[in-house]
Backbone:
C-alpha cells in the first residue's frame, strides 16, 4: 500500500513495504507492484 506523507513542504508517496519514497504517486504504485519488500539495492 502506498502511504501519502508531507515532508519539506512537498507531498511524497511512500512504499509501506520497503519505505522508498517517490514524488509521483504513479511511480510509487508502479514500484509497489514490483516491490519485493527488501531494502532497495540503491541509495535513496
Residues:
Amino acid at each position: 500500500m502506498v502511504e501519502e506523507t508531507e515532508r519539506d513542504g512537498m507531498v511524497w508517496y511512500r512504499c509501506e513495504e520497503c519505505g522508498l519514497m517517490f514524488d509521483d504517486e504513479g511511480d510509487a504504485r508502479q514500484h509497489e507492484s514490483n516491490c519485493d519488500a527488501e531494502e532497495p539495492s540503491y541509495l535513496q
About this structure: The mean pLDDT is 86. The chain is about 25% helix and 30% strand.
